[in-house]
Design goal:
348 residues; mainly alpha; 4-stranded mixed sheet
Length: 348
């Protein structure tokens, strides 16, 4: 898996599977910019056939020499004590007969990669609309042997396509809960990259001194808002990682969710435990209710940011992303669901 800053690690896990049943706000597109004159020429390298075709360790060494970023970042060379062990482990992996099955299924799911390239091209065209000086990264697709899913740098995006073959694949990522595993489909890739881009400090400016839950909620909310503008017609279920029923329930009972956050004094808490309960990856936020999905405070953060932008239509996306005062965004959003008295819970 990836090595990211804490919020990036969580965001990578939270993009969900695209469900067929969509309703309400899910169906609505955000603003769709005119990008007819902004078609970036992406540097797209399809290397998924290359590694399975290697037959000698010398060829593998040559590949890693030609692709040092792939070697050091995607395949984590530093995790091995020496080059010999690194090459031996990878050669064993890519000479395993099962790798042929992964390659065959990758071609079945992704074809020639044209659809994925088009998704990225449109998303980065939208990004250039908002940030004209932005230069799209190089995109490299590979097979990792179910070792790595995604890795992002300022200049590169590495994608292990075999992680995203979906429920029909013979081999799936190991040691992963089902509610997380269901997210690893081809529909996951572009939204997750856009979310991670929206987290990046190049775009998402935040006050590092503010350690409150509210500050993290707003940071997440800005990232979701950003990603929605890059892929404006993607469903909210896909971005948030909720099923349709979870999203509909969150909207229907938003006042109860908000009441719990207020009553338990969650917003201005700096407790790691409180953040784990309301912001971190979990199947359910049981502190709110047995049917409340995990990461519910992230969703509320997105709602607050959306409300702020509705109240301030003159604010551009770059201006929003540059705002570092989370409390100001919250205060000026006017986000105030009705607060009701809920049964008490033990406070942290």
């Amino acid at each position: 898996m990836l090595i990211f800053a804490a919020m990036k690690k969580v965001l990578l896990a939270l993009v969900g599977i695209l469900l067929l049943s969509c309703s309400g706000d899910e169906k609505k597109c955000a603003f769709v910019p005119d990008t007819s004159a902004l078609r970036p020429q992406l540097r797209f390298e399809s290397l998924e056939d290359t590694l399975p075709a290697i037959t000698t360790k010398a060829d593998l060494v040559q590949f890693m020499t030609v692709h040092p970023d792939t070697r050091d970042l995607f395949f984590s060379r530093s995790a091995y004590p020496d080059d010999s062990l690194f090459i031996n482990r990878l050669f064993d992996r890519f000479s395993n007969p099962h790798i042929d099955t992964l390659l065959m299924e990758t071609h079945r799911v992704f074809g020639d990669g044209a659809a994925l390239r088009e998704e990225f091209t449109q998303a980065y065209a939208n990004l250039k609309y908002y940030y004209p000086d932005f230069n799209p990264p190089r995109i490299q697709t590979l097979i990792s042997g179910l070792e790595t899913d995604l890795f992002l740098t300022d200049t590169s995006v590495f994608i292990g396509l075999d992680y995203f073959l979906g429920p029909g694949a013979k081999y799936r990522p190991n040691n992963m809960y089902e509610y997380m595993l269901r997210r690893y489909t081809k529909d996951f890739i572009v939204p997750s990259v856009m979310l991670l881009t929206g987290v990046d400090s190049r775009f998402n400016k935040n006050n590092e001194e503010d350690k409150t839950v509210l500050a993290e909620m707003i940071a997440y909310g800005k990232a979701y808002y950003f990603a929605k503008r890059m892929i404006p017609c993607v469903s909210d279920t896909l971005l948030m990682g909720y099923s349709s029923s979870e999203l509909e329930g969150s909207l229907a009972y938003e006042h109860l969710i908000w009441s719990r956050l207020v009553q338990d004094q969650v917003l201005f808490s700096t407790s790691h435990l409180v953040k784990q309960r309301f912001l971190a990856e979990r199947p359910k936020t049981i502190e709110v209710g047995e049917n409340c999905p995990g990461r519910i405070a992230q969703w509320v953060g997105w709602r607050i940011v959306e409300k702020y932008m509705e109240e301030h239509p003159e604010t551009t996306l770059p201006q929003l992303m540059a705002m570092t005062d989370a409390q100001r965004i919250f205060r000026e959003s006017g986000y105030k669901p009705q607060v009701v008295k809920l049964p008490g819970r033990e406070k942290s």
